[in-house]
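Below is a complete specimen:
___
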Amino acid sequence: MDERREEVAAKLALLRNHLGTQGALRLRGTDWFSWATAGASNSVLLARETGVAEILVTPDGAWVLTDEIDAQRLMDEELPDNFRVFQSRWTEPEEREEFVRDHVGPCELWSDRPLEGERPIPYEMAQYKRQLMPTEIRRYRKIGQLAAEAVTEVLSQAEPTWTELELAGAGAEALWKRGLYPSLTLAAGRRRLQLYSHPTPTAEPLGDLAMLSFSARGFGLHANLTRFVSFGRLDEDTRQIHDTLREIEAEALQYCIPGSRLDQIYDTLKKAYQRRGYTDAIDVHHQGGLTGYRVREIVATPMMGHSLVRNEAVAWNPCLAGARSEDTFLVLGNEQTPHLENLTLSNDWPVVEVGGIKRPLVWER
């Protein structure tokens, strides 16, 4: 807890330095709540981007605002002691608003999800959440390895007679038993892989080829990865399209260094597709971008000029029909000596080196 307390203290100092003496901040999102509390969760209903508690930061105080339903659990199991807790009656939501008005006073109020009278968090402040501290990186490494273990475990046991729903269910179970939330679980067999960019699972049997794709959340951070398994020897057409996709991905990964812009990496991917005859592939699905406390903190587009900095995380997901490549990487090093660290690669998964980086193969079982 001492490490978390120190991390939270540093983050509160960053926020107050930005807000000054006349600013206050209200954080409602599950992403910002986890960031500000060094990994706590305000989630109950997983489908929502806001939770059962929020954070209020003023020049001289920091509170978690919740109601009597969840206050005790949050204090017992989630929160470091940097925060005081204000609990309102769940039948009287106006009590929370009165508390905020009383403690914000004449300060200008900012928010990650602003309501009337509140200002949106500026880009510079949002960057605090994207550039990870050493303690966050240590947590992220743990999450990535647990997610990699989960997908490896499930695909080592899957059978071609399983349905996509059974594969997705086994994937979610493998995450939950490791303490990870399944923010996203995509599962598809041979036929539907060819048709859809987001193959949400159905009752259709897998057949001879299957994909499992995760966004696994732990301590608020997302580990994103996609893996394929072939039940028997992979046919040459499928092998070739996966080989081609890894070559395309490798060109983007080479540019994941401090100082590179997301629009430049997007353009690199676009040209890599085009040189191999896939003229419109860039339009079929987004290509990924920054990840972290959101599954995608920033999606790369032709107009997104965000420049990568050290200790940000990226997750690209280039796609061709029936193939996808995805892992979560830390951008380390500097412009002269860049380094990418793959957080989600298991030692038990077959790999090939492409452009000097180990990438997962289709596992032929």
